[in-house]
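Journal club prep, notes for RB
We'll compare a predicted complex against what the paper describes. Inputs for the FE2/S2 (inorganic) cluster case:
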Amino acid sequence: MDKHVLLRDLDIPDIRELAVYQANDGYAAWRKALTGMKPDEVMGVVKDSGLRGRGGAGFPAGLKWSFLPKDIFPKYVVVNGDESEAGTFKDHQLIENNPHQVIEGVALCAYAVQAGTAYIYLRGEFYEPARPLQKAIDEAYAAGLLGQNILGSGYSLDIHIHLGAGAYICGEETALLESLEGKLGQPRLRPPFPAVQGLYAKPTVINNIETLANVPPIVLNGAQWYRQYGTEKSPGTKIFCVSGRVNRPGNYELPLGQYTIRQLIEMSGGTIDGCPVKGVLPAGSSAPILPVSALDTRLDYESVQAAGSILGSASFVILDDSVDIVWAARKMVRFFRHESCGKCTPCREGTFWALRLYDKIVGGHGSSHDIDMLADVANGMANKCFCLLGEFATSPILSTLKHFRPEYEQFVREHQNGLPNTYGDQLIRDHAISVAGGSVVEVAY
Amino acid sequence: MIKEKRASDVEKILAKYPSKRSAVMPLLYLAQEEYGYCNDAAIREVAELTALDPTEVKSVVGFYTMFFEEKTGTYVVEVCDDLPCALRGADAFVRHCEHKLGVRAGETTPDGKFTLRTVMCIAACDRAPVAQVNREYHYSLTPESFDKLVDDLK
Ligand SMILES: Cc1cc2nc3c(=O)[nH]c(=O)nc-3n(C[C@H](O)[C@H](O)[C@H](O)COP(=O)(O)O)c2cc1C
Ligand code: SF4
Ligand code: FES
């Protein structure tokens, strides 16, 4: 990969400016579509490209678009920029540094399904990164690339930004729709699916920001071009967010399936002090931890699944041997306890009790019996929650128990007084490293 | 009163959606800026503008963490201590912030200047420790740069 497809700001630093974006093929796909392609043709190219959703589930984007009924209007495009999975910061970089490509992707999606309005739902904490995105939208309107009768095509489109207000559950697509409608961000029962009855009960496409940022180069260069990257089942490039105990945390855009987790860690500068890797979370707190034996797993949807986890949003949190697994699991469970929306009992109660148990163990009052109880609580939640958040919440518990049970046992034996409240200090000594961190261009392999 | 003071903002927000109800969150942000927090007057005004019952608006305020139900300091300092940041020292960093401001996380300084909160991941884990002050990011903080940030706001 000699150039980035998505993180183009790393090759062209000023690409957030409209003029620079346009001088580098920006809005060429949009012009091509509006002046010479039928909506179905745009949808067809995206289908053929095999582009899969980057928000977590990996569902084929073109196929999703084709589920919208043709004869019902208005239709909506809703863009998921909630980006609240711990360890995920790719959409953040895209809207801040390459916003026009996001807008062009949203526009192409809207044209393909013939929606007249698109809402970009950003997490409330993106108040500041929303500014360059809004500026880019304003520029696109001023240049006649959005608004009424775009480029004389007869097609009209409005794009609005909507800010959430701090709730991880709003990343779940139906909760997001509720939130956008001004209600509590709690998931809806499905069916009906959003494609049929989404925003305001109208046909709606929901895609992640990164997913849609792939669309302009696909429409411009064709499905075959896109498929030169990645594998048959996981085509294209993907942004991998690397955080935790590595020297150079940041976003790394790589062709799917080409590299392994071990290589990703090497690209990220390796672990701090070269400390051995203890485990890797491939999708933040939500997917099962992978042990070192899985480090040679290739970075695509199928391979990570075969290894026992989920690629999801590809937010790789790296844990090394300096990290206490019980402490890390408690942090993750605390996250889910905090973010449970309270709608259903298994998740609301389960996360409460699980955190109580972790607090007891980390506080130095745990026993073997408490470890068993943790497993019981998690198993009691599994497959009983109203939405996937509750299921996600079981994964830090069950997967760390599966791979690191002896560490739990050792913890309750050795930490009768709990972790010292200065525990975090040992993790701060390499503080300066994070200052130097950030995105770097893919290293040669 | 945002209806008078921020009339054009209110109008712009309402025009974005086919349903007034969708404007509840953006209007609450406006109201929060004007009233300082989502007090009863703010809630009543947003309810009126969105044709909702005040209890419905109140439940929205209660659901989302970025709407404040109580008065906050002039500057709301939110430090992330979620796992990825904690792996890079965020826990100790939070203790430094507490020490510097002289309050525990969740509290407001006696002079009403700063409210310190800890938050879950704010999508900047590559630049930990990270904080937001009134929703503006401050990346790759050090104890020294945090002290300077606070001193400059004093
Ligand atoms: C609890 C939960 C949180 C989610 N958070 C996000 C998120 O922050 N961003 C996102 O794009 N998708 C998130 N998703 C996935 C969305 O529900 C949905 O699948 C996605 O937006 C579809 O877009 P895609 O097909 O382009 O990935 C989340 C799902 C669940 C269950
Ligand atoms: S599983 Fe959790 S987040 Fe999902 S609906 Fe139930 S309580 Fe809400
Ligand atoms: S964990 Fe702190 S910003 Fe993500």
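Talking point for the session: Residues 237-320 of chain A form a domain with the Ubiquitin-like (UB roll) fold (CATH 3.10.20.600).
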